[in-house]
Amino acid sequence: MKTFAKHIVTIALGLAAWPVCAQGPVAAVSNTGGTSAMEWHRNAAYRIKYKVPVDWTLVKQGNDTISVATYVSPQQDMLLFIGKRRDAAKTLTPEAALAEMLQEFQVTGNRIFPTQYNGIKFVETTGSGIVRGHAVQYDAMAANHRGHIILVYVYASHAAYQSNKQTLEQVVHSIAPYRGR
Question: Residue 162 phi/psi, 5° resolution?
Fold first, then answer.
């Protein structure tokens, strides 16, 4: 049986041709001096909310044990992936989930450090590697959130990551708890 990370990576990599619930738009300034309109996405199943550029395409995938929301930039040079496995927190630590995900994406993690965004405690790492034959830069995180393991992975070509770093950071830093209805 495939591991949790293998399921998610298989789904995420199958979505993007490249290598790689909304509320009103919010302006985000990019490093290139322009602005990128952002919108809130609320996911009651994941019990989180987060901002994503309005022009990114959402693709939802999943099976009986996992759920993945993947967002791809119009140029297909950046990808945001958020996955969760129901009740995985009972058997899997965020550190182990993050290590599995990095191994499946075939990238080497740097130092893993604890961080917190809007009350959710993550373990996080950043780095670079080769995904589907393309050099990428990434930020990856995992958290035990309300009984689920949440995995967040944003990756982009080096050029796209550097020119959109502020927007990508805003996406990652916007992740917050969501209670739903």
Answer: -65, -40
